[in-house]
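Researcher: Good morning. I'm working through a list of sequences from a screen, and I'd like to move beyond sequence-only analysis. For each chain I'm collecting a predicted structure so we can compare shapes side by side. This is the next one on the list. No need for commentary yet; just the structure.
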Amino acid sequence: MELPYTKIRPSLIRQIKNINFAVIYFHSTENLKLNKEVKANEMGNIKKRMDHKF
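Model: Good morning. Structure tokens for this chain:
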């Protein structure tokens, strides 16, 4: 006997995979933006420290 929900599953799994990919992609792009900002701040701080020393 075939369960009724097995017919829906492949497309549902595909949708879930797409959603997961979208979420991961969004988070990774957000992290990249944050990393760029953090790195810029770090570079600024290092520069300030270097200027302070000399």
